[in-house]
Design brief:
binds alpha-D-galactopyranose, 2 domains, 11 helices, about 375 residues, single chain, alpha+beta, Ribosomal Protein S5, domain 2, 8-stranded mixed β-sheet, 12 strands
Length: about 375
């Protein structure tokens, strides 16, 4: 997105010049799905698609939000109680304002415009990018860019999503949007919050994102249900989280009848996926994409059969990709129930793979699925 255009949108929205611009990227998770809220490992990259927060200072205590993509505006008085409200998208912003105001990090008003080229609600971390862009804009407007540690800002944004948007997400999306580095994937330990930057840059390798454009209403309720099932399973097995389990403990759970069939499936996914994520990071260090791709297919099968968060369209894309020349691996990325699949392929074969997927998807489902190539981009920053 052009900075000039972004400034123009701010001007036509608020009738004055912007004071500054920040941006926060979306993400794709390479592997490690539904492990973050089990305190496991994830391996996402930030992508070169961003939510921009453009701000203008005000002399009062009012913070306003407008969006270039969604209707409605929000106006929040910093001297009053900050609560959820309309329009629905503003709740991500309201929660962040509340968190920063509680810490005394926003005291002065601002007009904020948000604009994005991340598909909204498409499983590419658009909610987290909105939260991080909001936080960065408010901090920049208050001249307090270093007023909060990155790890704390991640938790503040996660809390905003829990309490103001009602979705009990983990910390993956906010972490990568803030801490992503160009040419690196982030192996994040969701227990300690510590990350290792793993090289992920190679002119011979390509990452394709296939957007099914499908959004299932049950996505957030099913997400909350999965989280609850994991919590209960850990409780029954007498461990704090599923991160604390290994294959042996699962076998014991199976033979003791401690878990019911569904719980066992969920546990099997989480424990297997954490192991695959660690193995995947090793494969990337070794530049072994064939190995990594195999783990991606296994991850997808586990999400489809044990965790049950895939859908027909995602399965069709992954199946087809598996038979294409030059494809290392494919899987759904993000929470599931629609959204996007990712494909890791030889750069030379990426165009042909993309063409084949689009054609097959249109034939089978009678609608388009946009495909775009992406790369590991840098995390959130001040643009101007
Ligand atoms: C969503 C959540 C993340 C994570 C993924 C599944 O993207 O925001 O915290 O749980 O789903 O891996």
């Amino acid at each position: 997105m052009e900075i000039k255009t972004i400034r123009e949108i701010f001007h036509s929205t608020y009738g004055r010049e912007a004071s500054g611009i920040v941006r926060a990227p979306g993400r794709v998770n390479l592997i490690g799905e539904h492990t973050d809220y089990n305190e496991g490992f994830v391996l996402p990259i930030a992508i070169d698609r961003y939510t921009y927060g453009v701000y203008g200072l005000r002399d009062d205590s009012i913070v306003t939000f407008a969006s270039a993509q969604a209707n409605g505006r929000a106006s929040i008085d910093l001297t009053g109680q900050i609560e959820p409200g309309a329009p629905p998208w503003s709740n991500y912003c309201r929660g962040v304002v509340a968190g920063l105001a509680n810490r005394g990090l926003v005291t002065r008003g601002a007009d904020i415009l948000l604009t994005t080229d991340i598909p909204i609600g498409g499983g590419l971390g658009s909610s987290a990018a909105l939260e991080i862009a909001t936080a960065m804009a408010l901090l920049a407007a208050a001249n307090k860019k270093n007023g909060i540690e990155p790890g704390e800002l991640v938790l503040l944004c996660q809390k905003a999503e829990h309490e103001f948007a009602g979705v009990p997400v983990g910390i993956m999306d906010q972490s990568i949007s803030l801490m992503g580095q160009r040419g690196r994937a982030l192996l994040l330990d969701c227990r300690s919050g510590e990350g290792e930057q793993v090289p992920f840059e190679d002119p011979d390798m390509a990452v394709l994102v296939v957007d099914t454009q499908i959004k299932h209403d049950l996505a957030s309720s099913e997400y909350a249900l999965r989280r609850e099932q994991c919590h209960l399973a850990a409780e029954r097995l007498g461990v704090p989280t599923l991160r604390d389990l290994d294959e042996e403990a699962i076998a014991k759970g199976e033979s003791d009848d401690a878990l019911d069939r569904v719980q066992l499936m969920r546990v099997r996914h989480v424990v297997g996926e954490i192991a695959r994520t660690l193995e995947g990071a090793q494969a990337l260090w070794a530049g072994d994409y064939a190995k990594f791709g195999g783990l991606m297919f296994e991850s997808h099968a586990s999400l489809r059969d044990d965790y049950r968060v895939s859908c027909e369209e995602l399965d069709a894309i992954v199946d087809l990709a598996g038979g294409l020349d030059g494809v290392y691996g494919a899987r759904l990325t993000g929470g599931g129930f629609g959204g996007c699949a990712i494909i890791l392929a030889k750069a030379k074969k990426a165009k042909a793979a993309s063409r084949a997927i689009r054609k097959d998807f249109a034939r089978r489902f009678g609608q388009e699925c946009p495909v775009f190539a992406t790369c590991a981009a840098a995390g959130a920053s001040v643009v101007q």
